Amino acid sequence: MIPLITHTPRLLLLAASRALLTAELHKPQYFPVLLGAALPADWPPGHHNREAMTYFLEQLTAGGRTAAGWYGWYALRKAEGDVPRTLIGAGGFMGPPDAAGLAEIEFSVAAGWRGQGLGTELVAGLLQQAAATGMVLQLVAHTTAADLPAQHVLAGNGFEPEGTTPDGRLRFERAVVPAADAALGAAGA
């Protein structure tokens, strides 16, 4: 089974569920209660729009338990001092990896939380999740030429530019070492 929660130093990454996505789309007053976190005023950010939420919900509904963890993820800033646990961004996979182990990720951070390294940490958490599945061997991400912060986040996580797509977006790729292989390599060192 794929882990549905991942921790980074400042973030808790939580896999989207049908209940969370349904609340986010149709009962937004219940969404923060189910999530157990405060919401930023400008939610949802960037790529995490109604279209993405609807897609994730459709995929989770069609795929059942085997789809869990392969679509949207919520990035929650851990509570610290007087600051409560807060939803700061979203990201995730666009589905399970293909037969060659290739999966695509996307990420967005709410405007008030940008510039603090949280996007870099969010992508690092998604890399950790990809490795933990043991199924992902390569990750791809896309961004626009104008989105320099996203390019910086990807580069900071070891992604390399690999050209452009037919629609003009930049393509970035990165190899993933499955967690079991990494553990075997460390044990043999």
TrEMBL record:
GO molecular function, one term: acyltransferase activity, transferring groups other than amino-acyl groups
PROSITE patterns: GNAT
Superkingdom of the source species: Bacteria
Domain N-acetyltransferase: 33-183
Listed CDD domains: NAT_SF (cd04301)
Protein name (database record): N-acetyltransferase domain-containing protein
UniProt organism field: Hymenobacter lapidarius
